[in-house]
Structures are given as C-alpha cells and as structure tokens.
Design goal:
By secondary structure, the chain is an alpha+beta fold. The chain has one domain (14-80): Dodecin subunit-like (2-Layer Sandwich), CATH 3.30.1660. It is 27% helix and 48% strand. The chain contains two helices and three strands, in the order H-E-H-E-E. The chain has a three-stranded antiparallel beta sheet with strand order 1-3-2.
Length: 83
C-alpha cells in the first residue's frame, strides 16, 4: 500500500456559521459564532485555528411582524487532530 502524504489543505476543514439576533452587538455575535465553530470542529475531531476566523456583518433582515434582526456570518478553519 503506497504512503500518502496529506497536503495542508487536506489537514484543515473550513466551517461557516450564521448568528442572528434582535440587537446589533458584534461582540456577542463573535462569542456565539466562536462557540458554534468550536462545537462543529470538536464533533469532527478537529482543533479550531482562531487566527483564520473572519466575521462579516451585520446584515439587517426584516423578520415576521416587521421586526429588524441582525445577521453575522463567521468562517474559520480547524485542523484535523492526528493530521
């Protein structure tokens, strides 16, 4: 069986989450997004690389009954453990 070396790209997984709240609070959006990214990475046996995390937003969205919601999208990478 031939030995296969993983490329750096194969060792990392990219995750994306969206946080929506009825208030415009970037710090809370970042904290919530980090928590979600961490859970997703752990579920895949990976370790988040916080230096790769980016967050975009907020984007104002009109919800039911005309309420304004604020939406952020966070993207980050995680290194597969054992890679």
């Amino acid at each position: 069986m031939p030995l296969v070396r993983l490329t750096d790209q194969a060792r990392y997984e990219t995750y994306r989450v969206t946080a929506t709240a009825p208030y415009d609070d970037r710090e809370r959006a970042v904290a919530g997004s980090r928590g979600q990214l961490r859970l997703m990475a752990i579920a895949d046996s990976a370790t988040p690389d916080w230096s790769t995390m980016t967050i975009e937003g907020p984007v104002e969205v009109t919800g039911l009954h005309g309420a304004t919601w604020y939406e952020w999208t966070a993207t980050g990478e995680a290194r597969r453990n054992g890679s």
